[in-house]
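Entry for cytidine-5'-monophosphate complex. Fields follow.
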Amino acid sequence: MLVLQNTFLVICMRLSRIAEGPRYAASTAVVSMEVVKFVTCLVVIAVGGSGDAQLKDSEDGVAKKPNYWSNLINSLNNEVFKKPEQVMVLAIPSLLYTVQNNLLYYALSHLDAATYQVGYQLKVLTTAVFSVFMLGKKLSKLQWVSLVILTFGVAMTQLSAESNANKKHAENTTAGFIAVLLAACTSGFAGVFFEKVLKNSGTSLWMRNVQMGISSILLGVIGIFANSGDREIVSQNGFFFGYSGLVWTVIMLQAVGGLVVAVVVKYADNILKGFAASFSIVTSFFLCYFWLDFQPSWIFFWGAVLVNLSMYLYSYEPPKREEKPTEAPHVAAHNKV
Ligand code: C5P
């Protein structure tokens, strides 16, 4: 799901930024997406999916009718109102994600979808570095080498983007790429931070997303006011100015993606999430080629090859040789114990 979501999100976001007609304020799309996610998580918790407010049988053994409303109120009371410190802790990744989600709109206003996808793979590097420092993860030499190859590959695709810049849309590829680099840093830190919080407690990921969503919505609204261009659009034309079907598609795709990311981080980890994103380079590449008239140069092609090679090397595990017991079986069994 993450591969599909990544591919379509990036293409639709790019199309929405270069479409003719009035351009929506990206910071309002970030807030809309947070609201969609927040409401979805509340609904899941209300119908009992949080694991925090399980329905209990009444004392006489007869199952009670599910009361969605009290489910929700109890869960919010236990996990939000009684635990404001948890909400504060999650304000750290939510601040970073709010900045990141705004940066991505900016980046896709200046870079084509394929170049953006490859550049954003640097988040695998930042995720690895933060996983080493924050989660005590150990990386092999081959994995470090693969991260260096990744960096070279990304640099090559950026060189090719400079010469491909689309003058029609007044693109500033350098600024776009700086936005991608910053987003890769926030993605690495926020992802590892969220993984640490999620895996060190029994609180459900839906509730964690509600705890995070409160600050995300507030910070997102501050983001609208902080951006003078967007502030002007909203004050003159309203919050939903320029919202076409395509913009709503982007918002829904990003909201679903955020929830899928949380699930991937819970049941796998951030590094695996990185691989899903890197595979979507290949899918985006083909879609851009056939749909968006993207003409890759050779330097882009080899850069993308290096990025995918680095992903392969990063996840490469030498096949384990089967060890034949050299001692008598009963000695081997004893040693094993
Ligand atoms: O590119 P990256 O994988 O860092 O993107 C993460 C996305 O997932 C962001 O849009 C972020 O807002 C979202 N997310 C979320 N809930 C989480 C973790 C991430 O909505 N618990």
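NOTE: Confidence is low (pLDDT under 50) at residues 51-58.
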